[in-house]
Amino acid sequence: MSFFGGGSDRKMEDCVFQLKFCSKQMERLSKKAEKDQKVHENKIKKALAQGNVEGARIYAENAIRKKNESLSYLRMASKVDAVQSRWQKKQDSRYSTSWGKQEQPLPLLSLQANARPTQKTNCPGDLLLSATDQLKTRVILFN
Hints:
The protein is mostly helical. It has helices at residues 8-50, 53-103, 106-114, 125-142; strands at residues 2-3, 6-7. Strand 1 (2-3) and strand 2 form a beta hairpin. The two termini are 36 Å apart.
């Protein structure tokens, strides 16, 4: 199935891959921002030990900014991951529905068409017997 002449399945796979990659990249950036925050916190301690209050204030502002940046990256990574999982589910369902329609044997297709969900069978063998009976009738009809 393709839209506008292109392979939509391939485009969807590429998009899912890009979303996974983007999510992981944002998680890495979040870790980097956390590391930078810790560096700035250490600079705060050194500045206060030296009596440099103004420098410590600047480092504190930078540490707070890095902390917020890290949290923002994590939030965005979570949102991208949610979108990616929705696309992955849609892609999997497209494959499973197209695969399921093509690969089912003929007796099972007819059983599904004639099946009533409210009807209970006595044993699991009833399903097998009815499938073999239908297969035998098809073999007889086609020979």
